[in-house]
Amino acid sequence: MDKKLRGSIFLLVASIFWGSAFIAQDAGLEYLGPYAINSMRFLLGALFMIPLVIYRRKVITRDTSMENWVEVHGRSRKAGLLCGIFLAIATSFQQVGLVYTTPGKSGFITAMYIILVPVLMALFFKKRQGWNIWVACIMSVIGLYLLGNVGGESINLGDVLTMVCALSFAVHIISVDKYSGGTDGIVLSQYQLLSAGVIGLVITILSGEVVTISGLVGGLPYALYIAIFSCCVAYTCQILGQKDTPPAMACVIMSLESVFAYVFDILINGAVFSLREGIGALVIFGAILLAQLINGKVVR
User: Fold this and answer.
1) Cα separation of the two ends of the chain
2) On the chain, which terminus has fewer CB atoms closer than 10 Å, C or N?
3) Which residues contact 148 (CB under 8 A, 6 or more apart)?
4) 72 CB contacts (<8 Å, ≥6 apart)?
5) How far apart are CA 184 and CA 239, in angstroms?
C-alpha cells in the first residue's frame, strides 16, 4: 500500500474514534468531573497498551536483537513522555475553557490548530506548505465554523483558555512529527498516555475535584470506551499516520473528527443536521480532497 494512502487511513480511523468519543465523554460527565475523566482515560489507555508493547518487544527482538529493542524503547519513551506533556496541557485548558464558553465555540477555537500547525512549521522550522494545504486549512476552518454553529458572542476567558489549548494541540502534533522518527509507534503511544494520565491525576488532586466510588462505578463504562478507542486506538493511529503524512496535511484529515462527532450524535442521540451544518461538513470533505488529490508541492 502507498505510504501516503496508509498514513491517511490511519488518521481517518483516528478521527472516527475521536468523533465517537464525544458521546461517551458527554455521558461520563454525569458521574465524574472533567479532570477525573481525563486522567482515567489516559491511565487506563496506557494500561491496556501493555499487551501490545509486549508483542512489539517480541517482534523486534525476534527480527533484530534485544539491544535494538532497548535502543528503540528508549527513544520511544523519551518522545512519548514529551508528547504526553503537551497532550495533557491541551486537554486541561480545553476542559477549563468549557466552564466559561460554549461547546460550539470551544470546538471551533480548538480546531484552530489546523491553521496554527502550518504557521508554526513555517516560522520555526522553515517548512513551506503547498498552496493546496493553505487553501485546505482555510476551508477546514470555514467548514468547522459552519458545523459548530458558533454564535457572535464577545470573547471571554474561556475563549482565551481554549486558544491556549489549540496552540498546545498544534505543538503536540508538531512534536509527534518531529520525535516519532526512529521510534516504535506503539511504545511512544503508551508513554504518551502514561505521561498525560499522571499529569491529569495531579491536576485532578490539585483542583480539589471530588471523586466518589459511585461516580467511578457509573463513569467507568464511558471511561473504558474512551480509553480503548479514543486513546489506545486513535492516538496510536495518529502517531502511525503522521509517520507518512506531513503535519499540516494531517491536521486537515483530523479535522474530520468534528464531522464524525455530529454523525455519531445523529446515530446515537437522534440529533438532526441543519442546512448550515451540512454545508460545513461538505466544505471540510472538500478540503480533504484538495489536500490529498492535488499536488501543491508540500515540503515536509
Assistant:
1) 20
2) N
3) 104, 105, 107, 108, 258, 280
4) 60, 182, 183, 184, 187
5) 9
**Residue in the block written with cell 480511523:** 13
Q: For residue 298, tell me if it sits in a domain.
A: no
Burial category of 62 from C-beta neighbours within 10 Å (exposed 0-12, middle 13-18, buried 19 and up) = exposed
**DSSP string covering 73-120:** HHHHHHHHHHHHHHHHHHHHHHHHHHHHS-HHHHHHHHTTHHHHHHHH
- Provide the number of structural domains found in the chain: 1
The model's pTM: 0.84
Tens digits of residue pLDDT in 146-163: 876 665 556 678 888 888
- Compute the distance between CA of residue 289 and CA of residue 99 in angstroms, rounded to an integer: 35
Element holding 237 (H helix, E strand):
helix 234-242
Residue 119 within any structural domain of the chain: yes
Give a yes or no: residue 250 inside a domain: yes
The one-letter code for the residue type at 245 is T
Its domain, for residue 65, covers 3-293
pLDDT in tens, 188-206: 999 999 999 999 999 999 9
Written as nine digits, the cell of 117 is: 500547525
